[in-house]
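#struct-pred
JK: can someone run the complex with phosphoenolpyruvate? inputs below
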Amino acid sequence: MRKKIVAANWKMNMTQAESARFVESLLLDLGDIIDIEVVILPPFTAIAKVMEALGKAQNIKVGAQNMHWERSGAFTGEISAALLRDLFVHYVVLGHSERRTLFGETDEIVNRKVRAAHEATLRPIVCVGETLEQRDKGNVDKILSIQLRGSLKGLSEKELQETVIAYEPVWAIGTGRNATPEQAQEAHMFIRHTLREMADDAAAERVRIQYGGSVKPENARELMSQPDIDGALVGGASLDPRSFVQIVKAARDE
Ligand code: PEP
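RT: done, structure tokens with the ligand placed:
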């Protein structure tokens, strides 16, 4: 059984005060949740505040939205895995489509970061997904295969099992247009099939694959009830604690 994982990707939003208020509200509803893994992904500037607000609630994990692959050095403006570990961060999102399209991140760059994250015992959430043009041309499987093989190259089976994959069709991110549960399940099944080719069956079965792209309280339950959908990576709807809590509860109820 894979434990579902639901993550709040705040992107470039949330001040320290807003983050603390969000966590206080979240703890009222999810303070003792253990059956679903809940992850908050604040901007770098709010990570310490979120940690402080969580206090002893170690069931809720914190992640970063990006990092550099080098351990330290002259990389002005960058953050390393070691610096994130110093803040007790558990997860890091890598290869988000906004990083790929707006900041030119290739699979090779994502792969360097994924390896650096594992070296520092940070767990990567690796995003893959096709554009609308690629889907319309019938290239979904091809694109997913290239992104997975490129981004996860050289990982040991243990590292692969500890990696979370987020299937995020680019056309569904921040557009209000989610993939149907059937479209998402089909892509997740293909991702697991590809993981089976990259590692053994048991390892592929253990990898959690989140769906991301306009997840809302209204569509969360149906999406997460699909056999290969192991949670959600939530952008816009994660900025409101009530919506986010409803999405987490949808993962629990399905
Ligand atoms: C995301 O940022 O990963 C995302 C899926 O955003 P949204 O939920 O707003 O589509």
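RT: quick notes.
The longest helix spans residues 181-198.
The domain at 5-253 is CATH 3.20.20.70 (TIM Barrel).
JK: thanks, will look after standup
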